[in-house]
């Protein structure tokens, strides 16, 4: 059994202990301040006698430390040093997560906590249920109020049948044994937790929600946040970004959402108008005649992909072929023909795109593809039209009738 110093005093960062077991890189001490991880919080890192501890694991009441290349002996007294800056940040993050979910669950009673992740690089909680930024804004403000109120945090163990569990956040099926470890934050939150926490809420300094993203299929949302000094610096950077964005939009920062909404509405109107012009330009294409086949061709700007595909399908309804290109951020190409026109469009599109590092795919009578750069769009179009005309000319004259005959 290992004595868990991290529970009795999570603020101890240096300790002495005796080695009681060794197996390859793994050692067991009679006591340890290294937290092995749990409750969504990552395990501690640090050193034992100056040698890095790179991994922790717990089996029942025994804590093992992985210390590669050690030369310890059983019975040896060693000194352990925790990476305190990292440990303290994780303690703050775990307490901050409790505060955030507690307040959020009061605003949105139907949400459920699916998972938490408390690490140095990422702190988040995963939620199932309806959620939006308005609810997050209220919850974050209440968290900041709780930090300023300096609520004490108390930790104690009770049995599974204790009445104090009636108002606790707990998943009883995940509790092994008869004891339940409870974490109280003032009188605003009580939750079963195996993690380690700070003494009071004022130590958090600040909590800042930084991101709300989809967590499907496992849940609905993942909320990312920062804590302490990192939260303050992040808030400063985000405020500067908001001010710069507001200035670029010619609006006050308080009106940024409304100004952005106006810009997005204007963009949608312009996109709709552009699609109308694109469709009109496509409708006005005049085909060239090759034998008894109409050939439609045209190179356009950043044309909507769906518009281009619909036009190709429309042009090739009756004994026709088409070569249509769009030169936006990438080059897009469509080669199609009517089922009664003998052209292998899939083979043709790969042949003309390959020299430019592009590729395509599709069926014999309808193929699409692209190339990384739009700068060679005209050359690709010319190459495609020349090869397609050659196939049609030879077919009309009774010569080559497959693409493989075209060099």
Layout of strands and helices, then pairs:
Layout: E1 3-4, H1 5-8, E2 14-23, E3 26-29, E4 31-32, E5 46-48, E6 51-53, E7 55-59, E8 62-66, E9 77-82, H2 84-107, E10 112-118, E11 123-128, H3 133-149, E12 153-159, E13 179-185, E14 189-192, E15 207-214, E16 221-227, H4 228-248, H5 256-283, E17 288-290, E18 293-300, H6 305-315, E19 320-327, E20 331-337, H7 345-353, E21 359-363, E22 366-371, H8 377-396
Parallel strand pairs: 1-4, 18-19
Antiparallel strand pairs: 2-3, 2-9, 3-8, 5-6, 5-9, 7-8, 10-11, 11-16, 12-13, 13-14, 15-16, 17-18, 19-20, 20-22, 21-22
Could you explain the architecture of this structure?
With 407 residues, the protein is α+β, with helices and mostly antiparallel strands. The protein folds into four domains: 3-82, Elongation Factor Tu (Ef-tu), domain 3; 88-237, Threonyl-tRNA Synthetase, Chain A, domain 2 (2-Layer Sandwich), CATH 3.30.980.10; 249-284; 286-405, Diaminopimelate Epimerase, Chain A, domain 1 (Roll). The chain is built from eight helices and 22 strands. The chain has helices at residues 5-8, 84-107, 133-149, 228-248, 256-283, 305-315, 345-353, 377-396, and strands at residues 3-4, 14-23, 26-29, 31-32, 46-48, 51-53, 55-59, 62-66, 77-82, 112-118, 123-128, 153-159, 179-185, 189-192, 207-214, 221-227, 288-290, 293-300, 320-327, 331-337, 359-363, 366-371.
């Amino acid at each position: 059994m290992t004595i868990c110093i991290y529970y009795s005093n999570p603020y101890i960062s240096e300790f002495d202990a005796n080695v009681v077991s060794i197996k390859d890189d793994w050692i067991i001490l009679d006591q340890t301040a290294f937290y092995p991880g749990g409750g969504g919080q990552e395990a501690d890192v640090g050193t034992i006698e100056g040698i890095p501890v790179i991994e922790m694991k717990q089996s029942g009441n025994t804590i093992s430390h992985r210390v590669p290349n050690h030369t310890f002996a059983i019975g040896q007294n060693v000194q352990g040093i925790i990476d305190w800056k990292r440990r303290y940040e994780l303690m703050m993050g775990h307490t901050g997560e409790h505060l955030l979910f507690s307040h959020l669950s009061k605003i949105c009673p139907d949400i459920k906590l699916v998972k938490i992740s408390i690490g140095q690089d990422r702190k988040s909680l995963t939620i199932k249920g309806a959620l939006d930024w308005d609810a997050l804004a209220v919850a974050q403000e209440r968290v900041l109020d709780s930090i300023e109120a300096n609520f004490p945090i108390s930790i104690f163990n009770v049995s599974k049948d204790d009445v104090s569990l009636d108002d606790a956040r707990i998943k009883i099926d995940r509790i092994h044994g008869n004891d339940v470890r409870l974490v109280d934050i003032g009188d605003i939150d009580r939750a079963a937790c195996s993690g380690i926490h700070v003494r009071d809420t004022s130590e958090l300094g600040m909590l800042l929600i930084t991101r709300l993203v989809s967590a499907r299929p496992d849940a609905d949302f993942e909320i990312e946040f920062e804590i302490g000094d990192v939260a303050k610096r992040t808030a400063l950077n985000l405020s500067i970004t908001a001010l710069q964005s507001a200035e670029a939009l010619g609006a006050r920062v308080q009106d940024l959402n409304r100004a952005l909404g106006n810009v997005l509405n204007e963009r949608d109107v312009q996109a709709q108008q552009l699609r109308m012009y694109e469709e009109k330009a496509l409708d006005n294409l005049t085909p060239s005649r090759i034998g008894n086949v109409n050939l439609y061709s045209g190179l356009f700007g950043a044309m909507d992909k769906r518009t281009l595909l619909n036009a190709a399908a429309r042009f090739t309804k009756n004994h026709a072929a088409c070569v249509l290109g769009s030169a936006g951020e990438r080059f897009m190409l469509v080669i199609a023909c009517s089922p009664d026109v003998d052209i292998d469009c899939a083979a043709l599109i790969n042949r003309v795109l390959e020299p430019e590092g592009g590729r395509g795919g599709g069926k014999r009578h309808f193929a699409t593809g692209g190339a990384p750069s739009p700068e060679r769009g005209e050359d690709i179009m010319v190459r495609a039209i020349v090869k397609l005309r050659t196939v049609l000319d030879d077919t009309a004259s009774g010569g080559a009738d497959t693409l493989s005959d075209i060099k």
